[in-house]
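**Discrete fold encoding**
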Amino acid sequence: MPYIIAGLGNPGEEYEGTRHNAGRMVLEAIRKGYAASAFEHDKKLNALTAEATIGGAKALLVAPDGFMNNSGKSLAPIVTAKKDAALKRNAANGLLVIYDDFQLPIGRMKLSYDKSSGGHNGLESVIKAVKTQAFPRLRIGTAPADAKGNAKVPHGDEKIEKFILGPFKPEELKALKKAAAKAVKVAEIWVKEGREKATNVANTD
């Protein structure tokens, strides 16, 4: 499978619709956007997976079914399947990881490449598991915006945890839906035209 798109989050009904599951929610929008097969549980990967055709190429959609901190365990068997170090790097370049960012306003997204985890436990798990940070990642904003359009960021570990594990408000879900629709297009541009073009589109409001 030449392309892998992963949406990070936590499994279970109690986490559905929460900010920390924005990656999973956007992944579901991509699945629907390309009429992919229904998600099925893959025991080997401990993940929900679906096959899609995006931009004329085959893509595997993956929602790790362990908790956020263990997201990488579901991706390592796919991304590091080849022994040659150069091929491993190429495989990682075909991986797009989508996850939540409480420091970005809802409705905004940022596509970046070969960066650190920025403290996001799910992304850190992926980096450690695939043994490289040289892959693109799409951050989905989850914070409410102030009058100037800047993110209202919570401070303190307890407040941050409560915030990211809390549900979106109805009006926020509308903004997230628009962002998800844009992410569907960004995924296709990434496949068809490459990372740089996809970054220009994703990072332009």
About this structure: The chain is about 40% helix and 25% strand. Residues 120 and 187 are 21 Å apart (CA to CA). Helices lie at 22-33, 72-79, 85-93, 121-130, 157-164, 170-193, 195-202.
